[in-house]
Design a protein that fits this description.
Oligomer: single chain
Distance between the termini: 38 Å
CATH superfamily of the largest domain: EF-hand
Number of strands: 4
Number of domains: 2
Strand order of the largest sheet: 1-2
Largest sheet: 2 strands, antiparallel
CATH architecture of the largest domain: Orthogonal Bundle
CATH topology of the largest domain: Recoverin, domain 1
Strand content: 5-15%
Structural class: mainly alpha
Number of helices: 9
Order of helices and strands: HEHHEHHEHHEHH
CATH class of the largest domain: Mainly Alpha
Shape: elongated
Amino acid sequence: MNLQEEDIEQCQRAFNDLDDRGEGEIMADDLEFALELVGLKQKPHKVHKLISEIDDGNRGRIKFKEFLALYAKLKYAGSSDDDQDMIDAFVAMGGNEDTTGNVDAEKLIRIIKNEFELTIDIEGLIKEVDTDGSGVIEFGEFKELLKTNYLQDDENDVP
C-alpha cells in the first residue's frame, strides 16, 4: 500500500527530531520512541525484533527509508481477519476505513462503560496507548488498545 503524503511528512518530522547527527539515520535504540511519535507504540520486545529485521549489519543505525518501510508495514498490515476486525471496530467508533482519522477517547470510554457495561480500567488503558496525550486515538493506538492483555507481559517472563 502506498503511503499518503501526510504519513511521509509525519515520519520525516519524527525521524528528523531523532536524527542527532543530521546524517539521515537514527540510533536503533531510538526506534521505540520514533514509532511512538508516529502513533505506532510497540512493546519493547517487539521493537527489538523489528530492529533485528531492518538493521542490516547490526550497525545500530536505521536509515529513513528503512523507518518508512517499517512504518508502512506496521500501519497497513491489515490483511488478516483480525486486522480487518480491528479496522471495522475503528470505523464503527469514528475512524476511516483506510485507518486514517481517529476515535474520541471520551466516546470510547462511554461506550465501554455504559453500552458494554465492562468494568475494565479503560481510562488507564487509554492513557497507556494515547502516547501523545491528544485525547483522540489514532489507528495504531486503537490497535494497541485492542491487543492489550494483562497476561501478555507475564507470559513473556516465563522461562
